Amino acid sequence: MATMVCSSSHSRGRRLGRSLLLVSACALAACSDGGTARPRVSSSSQAIINGTDSTEAQDFVVQIAIEKNGEMIPHCTGTLVAKDLVVTARHCVGELSDDELSVTDYEPSKLKFYFGTNAGPKTVDQEPEAQGKKLFTNGTKAVDPDVAVVQLDAPVDLPIAPMRLASGVTKGETVDVVGYGLTEENRYPWVRKQRKGLEVVSVGPESTQHFDLVEGEFQIGEAACAGDSGGPALSSATGALVGIASRVSNGERPDESALASFCMGDAAEDVYVSLASVREVIEAAFEATGRTPWLEGEPAPEEKAAEENGDDEATAGGRTPPPPADEGCSAARAPSPRAPTTLVAMAIALAALRARRRADAAPRTSTAPRDPAGR
What we know:
By secondary structure, the chain is an alpha+beta fold. The protein has one domain (20-284, 322-359): Thrombin, subunit H, CATH 2.40.10. Helix content is 14%, strand content 24%. It has helices at residues 20-27, 119-125, 279-289, 301-308, 343-359; strands at 52-53, 61-68, 71-82, 85-88, 94-96, 103-105, 112-114, 130-136, 148-152, 174-179, 193-199, 202-203, 206-207, 212-213, 217-220, 232-235, 241-249, 269-274. It has an eight-stranded antiparallel beta sheet, with no helix packed on it. Strands 2-3-4-9-8-7 form a six-stranded antiparallel β-barrel. A two-stranded antiparallel sheet has the order 5-6. A hairpin with a 6-residue loop joins β5 and β6. The longest helix has 17 residues, at 343-359.
């Protein structure tokens, strides 16, 4: 691989993709050091790309950011599964090695958290609403399985998501995805996005056009882009968290004039890691924090407590699974022209986005473009 690029060719023999994390960082001129960028998640998302606005009922989906060069950089997406526990991707909680096989964990406090449907824009000029306190991983530096849990420095009063830990997903079932990543307009959105009813096409172990899936992984079509890394796949039937965004590819490289191009097109494959495959990591986090996991098909912990106490009142905080959100438009999507993208080209593109951001005095709306790192 050449240095100073935020993309890579794919190999069936290696589980490569383009990192949603790294492409997001490049898109924000945040790839600072020379060396090879790691592609952990790479492809398209009509779930988030061409998606619809996510509602407050999905406020268990949170924005993860890190500080670089004095700016807060939108980094990844995560899911609250307890008042102080966020599930995200393993590659979101540390620095990746050049060969993409290992992760050196960040200090937990380096991970900053923003909440709400407009959490992405908050990173521009607002202080973080929480930060990491402790990390729970597979206990090694290995990037796989690509799931980690972050304990927050304080509990938050937000909805949480139930989890599917007893079994994985099955081919043919449908999932909904949510995140703060790039849209089809090559911009980070003012409002968190979602897309519903995505069919699980492949379940590992299985080879696809772009990936060799291992046990515990599953693949859908277009479903995530830069910034959605670590975001949730939710069961369309139950609302339970069933998978975490790991990597994605459509076989093409990003184009500096169309930063989301590598995320678009019918060839896109989005790989998620089944939550059930990392059950030990999840359970260790709950045991260490004294929290009670909310499992798929069960009442929320607060509802259980209310029943035990004879409390007929509904639990506060929106802890029940959200109702199905409105289906988004299904616009036709064709792959855009692609070309290798260097950090320099990305930085130039970002400079233009930042200039537009400074010049844009319009109120924030779900359709207005933005550069979250612009000042």
